UniProtKB/TrEMBL annotation:
One of its GO terms (molecular function) is 4 iron, 4 sulfur cluster binding. The lineage of its organism: Bacteria, Pseudomonadati, Pseudomonadota, Alphaproteobacteria, Rhodobacterales. The keyword Nucleotide-binding does not apply. It comes from the Bacteria. Residues 258-279 are annotated as: Disordered. This is Radical SAM methylthiotransferase, MiaB/RimO family.
């Protein structure tokens, strides 16, 4: 529902490859969402390179979420990827007030050093990010946070990297994506002197050790809780279903008799979204191998052609790809699942 970026971070090609920010208009998004929900979709993820910069209607993304939340039958709303500078009051209030907005937020920060954030042209400081996290958690205390990190950005010193570790310790992330800096041709940062590979390797290892510790702690905190899980695809192992908890951590479940189960071998498991954008697939393809009659009997999901008039430009058609539309199991209901250690595995949750 949003595409492109006006921010021009020094390391990123998106503003050059995707162009300026454009937003799909509110009525078109609502019409598509209503059509999807009428066909059995229970969860919608709003997608955009800068999704919270969406300006296709009055009140921004917070208002759009409130409109979507009024759609009967829609159980879950998510959005990604957001920029800290576009987290406005309305969107933070939506996290506090809209139960259908899941308590998970991917909010990239990239670095904890103000010097590096400036060199990256991120237009926010580490302190701004920390204050924003405080406001978000005040609004939604159970909010799980995820982020992106680049280590070894040109010019990053050990002190800059330590500032990133400090920020990670201060926030406590439920999950994160971290990478060594790699130059993208045509971006300002690509002209700068890179750091030695071994320095980047060492910093990435240290950062990932800390992030892994935090992720494991977040998962361990779920043990014994009963949470609603939306099952949407075969699990990784035979007999499992894969689903998502509100805070997004994957939730394999292996209780045949309670949930749909698959006996198909792992090679036959190709978890994919039921559909994205204009592509449509009959559900049978996604539930191939399931022995749950109800799941097999679900109708094919198709996006009505009327939503994609031929008059749309190719770019608009691309940006129509809003939907991560997750179908629940055959009963069409979210299941409540107690989180436990997988039997015998002794690792993860
Ligand atoms: S990193 Fe994100 S905010 Fe920065 S230029 Fe790329 S898409 Fe835009």
């Amino acid at each position: 529902m949003q595409e492109g970026c006006d921010k021009f971070c020094a390391f990123c090609v998106v503003p050059y490859t995707r162009g300026a920010e454009i937003s799909r208009p509110l009525p078109r998004i609502l019409a598509e969402a209503e059509a999807l929900v009428a066909q059995g979709v229970r969860e919608i993820t709003l997608l955009g390179q800068n999704v919270n910069a969406w300006h296709g209607g009055e009140g921004g993304l917070g208002a759009l979420i409130r409109h979507l939340a009024r759609i009967e039958g829609l159980e879950r709303i998510r959005y990604t990827t957001s920029h800290p500078n576009d987290m406005d009051d309305g969107l933070i209030a939506a996290h506090a007030e809209e139960d259908k907005l899941m308590p998970f937020l991917h909010l990239p920060v990239q670095s904890g050093s103000d010097r590096i954030l400036k060199a990256m042209n991120r237009k926010h400081r580490a302190e701004d990010y920390l204050r924003l996290v405080e406001r978000l958690r005040a609004a939604r205390p159970d909010l799980a946070l995820s982020s992106d990190f680049i280590v070894g950005f040109p010019g990053e010193t050990e002190a800059d990297f330590e500032a990133t570790l400090d920020l990670v310790r201060a926030v406590g992330f439920a999950q994160a994506y971290s990478f060594k800096y790699s130059p993208r041709p045509g971006t300002p940062a690509a002209e700068r002197e890179p750091l030695p590979e071994e320095v980047m390797d060492d910093r990435l290892r240290r950062l990932q050790a800390l992030l892994t510790e935090q992720e494991q702690a977040a998962r361990a905190a779920m043990l014994g809780q009963v949470v609603p899980v939306l099952f949407e695809k075969p699990g990784r192992l035979p007999g499992q279903m894969g689903g998502a908890k509100p805070a997004q951590h994957g939730c394999p479940c292996d209780r045949p008799g309670v949930l749909p189960r698959s006996d198909s071998p792992r090679a036959d498991h190709q978890p994919r979204l039921p559909f994205a954008g204009r592509r449509t697939r009959p559900l049978g393809e996604h539930f191939r191998g399931f022995d749950n009659n109800a799941a097999q009997a679900l109708p094919a999901v198709r996006i009505p052609a009327a939503i994609y008039p031929d008059s749309l430009s190719d770019r608009e058609k691309t940006s129509e790809c809003i939907a991560k539309a997750c179908l629940s199991k055959g009963t069409g209901r979210t299941n409540r699942v107690r989180i436990r250690h997988p039997a015998g595995a002794g690792e993860g949750v």
